[in-house]
Amino acid sequence: MSAGAFLALAAACGLGALAALRWRRRREMRRLQTLANLLSALREDDFSIRAIEARRGDPLGDALVEANLLADAMAAQRREALEATALLRTVMEEIDVAVLAFDDEGRVRLANRAAERLLSIPVFQLLGSPATEVGAESLLRDGPGTIDRAFPGGAGRFGVRRTTFRERGRPMRLVVVTNLGDLLREEERTAWLRLIRVLGHEMGNSLGPIRSIAESLESRARRAPHPDPAVREDLERGLTVVRERAASLARFLEGYTRLARLPKPSPGVVAVATWIHDAASLERRVPIEIAGGPDVRLRGDRDQLDPMLINLIRNAAEASLETGGAVRLAWVLSGNVVEVRVEDDGPGLADPSNLFVPFFTTKPGGSGIGLVLARQIAEAHGGSLALENRRDTAGCVAKVRLPV
Question: What does the pLDDT average to over 78-89?
Answer without folding.
Answer: 76
